[in-house]
Amino acid sequence: MSRYVSTMHNKSNEITDVIRYHWNWRAATFDRELSQGLHSERQRQAWLDLLTGIAGPSPLRVLDVGCGTGFLALLLAQLGHDVTAVDLAPQMIELARRKAAQANADIHFRVENAAALSDGDCSYDLVVERHVIWTLPDPARGIQEWLRVLRPGGRLAAVEEKFAHNEALAHEYSRPLKAALTAVVERTMEAACRCLGRGYWRLYSRKYRRIDAQLPFSGGPNADRLADFFRAQGLRDVAVQPLMGEALWGEKPPAPRYLVLATR
Fold first, then answer.
1. Closest to 237 measured CA to CA, from 246, 245, 227
2. Domain spanning 2-163+230-263: which CATH class is it, in words?
3. Over the stretch 163-191, which tens digit does the pLDDT of each residue have?
């Protein structure tokens, strides 16, 4: 049993390392993407209006999980809330800290796994996330951790989208022959990287494509699926709000984007 637990632990650590590598690599150009950064005052105001409707007028203790470069955290701090923000990727957090310093925003940033928080129980009034659920290897574990740090009656707000259909690719990776060949190729690349002392980015990129395809919510969940998932995790008053307005994104969204709001 101990050998099995050790193997599962090592596998989990490998997945976490690969995901961290990917989002560190994405950090430098992340805000340039139209759907990720703020690119106009009109867009900023649209998000402020949305977040005001979610949080209400009174200052709250808010946790932004998987905060990236601080998109939601900065806006919520601007609205007067006490914000803590965590992300697995140190380079994302570093950029978020710089942006907060430039905006003179007092936000508590931590490099931390969104599914393994160091906060005590019932620490927050509101937990928010933006395009995070689909990146989690174990979404149920993530939700339960967010509920643990959320006070009774507190709210969880998830901004998500269904941007791809990866079911066929996930099935392909699950085929025994494909899985065996993939393992051989990755082990060979890893040995070559160790010998050469370079080229790890190719190995991690290949591993990320495989891991991404096999995530439970790979390609993003649709709104009904995520709402049902929230209910199954014990959340109540689950409501879905489409987020298809061009003002929020700086463009007409190419895929269904939405907010799921629920109460612990």
1. 227
2. alpha beta
3. 887 665 555 556 665 565 556 556 665 66
